[in-house]
Design a protein that fits this description.
single chain; 98 residues; mainly alpha; rod-shaped
């Protein structure tokens, strides 16, 4: 037997309040901040390894290390996502109750 019902979040049955939206935004901001801190720490450790591998602390030399280059490929979108969320989340949340 196939169930054709659509599953929705529990909060979908009630209209969200501004407080609901604000709390959810804060939870998301906290989670993104934690993720950003973790990826920043990880990429710094990868950079430390690159310094050892290339034998130099100069940015130009370290940037050519393949592992550090890939770590930056991972760090950059996380960094952009956090910045984008911070830039617009409050405006989006404020406009979400029309």
């Amino acid at each position: 037997m196939t169930d054709n019902t659509t599953l929705t979040p529990a909060t979908a049955t009630a209209t969200p309040t501004q407080a609901d939206l604000d709390r959810a935004r804060e939870r998301a901001a906290d989670a993104l901040s934690d993720a950003h801190a973790a990826v920043t720490e990880w990429s710094a450790l990868v950079r430390d390894g690159a310094v050892d591998r290339v034998g130099s602390v100069h940015t130009d030399a370290v940037m050519h290390d393949p592992a550090y280059d890939r770590a930056l490929d991972v760090f950059s979108p996380v960094n952009r996502a956090v910045a984008a969320f911070r830039d617009v989340a409050e405006q989006i949340t404020a406009g979400g109750l029309r």
